[in-house]
Amino acid sequence: MLHLAETLNFSGRKVVAAGASVPFPALRGSSLPDILCAYEEEVPWKLLSSCREQKVSCCFAQSVVLRGICKESHLSCQGKQPRSPLHTWESTEQILQQYLHTVFPGAFSTSHVLQQSCHTLPPYPQFFSPLLTREGFLLDKPPRYPSAAVESIPVLAALQSSPVLHTLLHSLDKDLQRLNTRRLPSFFSAGVEHDDFQETLEGLRTLSQCYKTGFEADESEDEEDSD
User: Fold this and answer.
1) What is the CA radius of gyration of the chain?
2) Its domain of life (predicted)?
């Protein structure tokens, strides 16, 4: 994980944000282009890191892995007009890569597709919707009879070097600045020097600026005004 984060970062950046879709919302029998085309204004995953969801799609670099969507889920329709540019690609890898380039233009994006889904056999908790099949695909309507336990699910996971990290690091820096460490002598009992602590804060402040964009600058100003 550390080496992957280093690969996705440059220009002084060091950390990445994690996102995932568990399970990946794939309707049974639908193709990957159909699924991705349903997400025109948002990505099909949620942030796992403690960052606010960004209002625009933007990142510097990312690595995305999709599991459990086999190549046979997309069949090219010869002689018919493609419904979207994504429908012109034949392999799952090409479809996912093209989607990332479309949603995040200019970003360095790598994608990997694994046919094997994630197993959810006991002791994995069965907190899934009754609309999920045993293989983790969505049904278009509730089943007539209680469905069997979900044994596997398709999953999408993403690591992003993204401007949302500016807000996270900026907020952490502000919280730490509010601490009056001189009133907490035990804070430095482990051997941390006050000057080293201040130097670390300065490094955190510098790191947050590495993720700053014009949009994120406006976000930070709005937060400071609300404070």
Assistant:
1) 22
2) Eukaryota
